Amino acid sequence: MTDRRRINGPSGGTIPPVFASSITGSKLQHAARPTRTRGPNDLRKIFLKTGLVPSASGSAYLELEPSSPSDTLEASLIAPPSALKLTCTVHGPRPLPRSAPFSPHLLLSTHVKFAPFAARQRRSYIRDASERDLGVHLETALRGVILGDRWPKSGVEVVITVLEGEEDRWWGDEVGGGSTGIGNVGGWGMMNVLAGCITVASAAIADAGIDCVDLVSGGIAAIVKAPQEHNEDKTGSISESLQLVLDPCPSEHRRIVGACVVGYLASRDEITELWLKGDIPPSSYDTKDPGQTTVGLEKLVDGAVIAAGRSCLVLREALKEAAELKLNPSGGPAVSDENKGQSSGPDEAMDLGS
Questions:
Q1: CB-based contact 33:73 (threshold 8 Å)
Q2: Pairing mode, if any, of strands 216-232 and 154-164?
Q3: Which of 18, 40, 130, 216 has the fewest CB atoms within 10 Å, counting from its CB?
Q4: Do 274 and 302 meet the contact criterion of CB atoms below 8 Å apart?
Q5: Which of 352, 274, 263, 340 is nearest to 314 (CA)?
Q6: For residue 123, what pLDDT is reported?
Q7: Residue 286: its pLDDT value, please?
Q8: Distance from chain centroid for Cα 232
Q9: How far apart are CA 199 and CA 312, in angstroms?
Q10: pLDDT tens sequence across 79-128
Q11: pLDDT tier at 188 (50, 70, 90 boundaries)?
């Protein structure tokens, strides 16, 4: 029975309205799409900071800058392009309950949850299959890094909350086909989220003081179809060529052929996690001309490793800055016992965005 004393909301999910500009025509649709202004081998700026949650053993926050909006977006009420914002908290290591069986290794559990407001389509409060899948991939990337033999019969919990996630496609391409569009493969935004989850989880684990063999960082590369305006075939249509890009933003590309996410250990040159998706050529050599290299599986994995290595540089600088703040909470330059009577110069500012 319905409650007659209250005004009940709708039984199904609600979607906030999206208002378009007063400018009509296809010109706005073409101009509102974000464009990739950076080069194919350039990554977006990364902001990473640790120690944000005092109640947790370790915590970290990661944010990527949004893609460049168009000029006509200022005169419109359309929402700006989304950026990736993640928070991670680590609880433990702490002893397992008495009823749990004995384990000689540290038990790792990972949880990835999207906030209800993280995407254009409102998410549920209960974890769905995609979130559980991200948790499994994250656990695989972290399991080979933590030295679990030092904490027998103990457990650690890694919880990641996605405050803002990247969409699978540009909102203009979603013509009645949900988040993936009509006749297109979705899930590209989830791969960007996984790469960020690996990096922010590694920072939070290091902030918690858990021993690891190395810092693991996430990287993503994709094969996209880039139009060639000056190369038209006999039919008069513009042909498209495959191009390898690092750190792709799904809203900036009309079609993504395949993508690869890796969890990479830079110092040991090892891969702990590999996730491939899409129609990827099996070989990096052209079948017609063996001497001509094309974009294939090998180059795609190498591109993801390069992106992960660059993310590791930001990860190291963020942990180094956090360690300096813990050793010197006052914020001034650290002075040793031998140099207490000597004056020291000002510290150099570290830019974590590059």
A1: no
A2: unpaired
A3: 18
A4: no
A5: 352
A6: 80
A7: 46
A8: 36
A9: 8
A10: 556 688 999 999 989 998 888 888 888 999 999 999 988 887 778 888 88
A11: confident
Range 186-196 average pLDDT: 86
- Could you tell me the two tokens for 9? 């909301």
Longest dimension (CA), the chain: 80
Q: Half-sphere exposure of residue 206, counting CA atoms within 13 Å on the CB side?
A: 26
Helix axes 129-143, 188-207, angle to 10 degrees: 50
Judge whether 96 and 148 are in contact, CB under 8 Å: no
Interatomic CA distance for residues 66 and 38, integer angstroms: 12
Report the side by side order of strands in the sheet with 270-278: 238-246, 216-232, 256-265, 270-278
Give the whole-angstrom CA distance, residue 184 versus residue 188. 11
Token digits for 260? 């690869």
Quote the tokens at residue 162: 């996605």
| Helices and strands counted in the chain (H then E) | 4, 9
The phi and psi torsions of 276 (rounded to 5 degrees) equal -110, 145
**From edge to edge, which strands make up the β-sheet containing 154-164?**
46-50, 58-64, 85-95, 154-164, 106-114
**How far, rounded to the nearest angstrom, does the alpha carbon of residue 218 sit from its chain's CA centroid?**
8
User: If 0-12 CB within 10 Å is exposed, 13-18 middle and 19+ buried, where does residue 233 land?
Assistant: exposed
User: Concatenated DSSP letters for 207-232?
Assistant: HTT--BSS-EEEEEEEEEEEEEEEEE
The partner residues of 217 in beta bridges, in order of sequence, read 264
Phi, psi of 61 (to 5 degrees): -135, 130
Are 42 and 246 within 8 A, CB to CB?
Answer: yes
In whole angstroms, give the CA distance from residue 351 to residue 151. Answer: 36
Residue 87, classed as helix, strand or coil, is strand
Which two structure tokens, joined as six digits, stand for 143? 């399991």
> Within 13 Å and on the Cβ side, how many CA atoms surround 48?
32
Per-residue pLDDT, averaged over 149-160, amounts to 92
Q: Could you report the per-residue pLDDT of 38-77, keeping only the tens digit for each?
A: 888 889 899 999 999 999 999 999 999 876 654 444 545 4
Amino acid at residue number 290 = P
Calculate the CA 36 to chain-centre distance. Answer: 17
- In 3-state terms the chain splits into helix, strand, coil percentages (rounded to 5) of 25, 25, 50
Of the candidates 280, 243, 131, which has an alpha carbon nearest to the alpha carbon of residue 194? 131
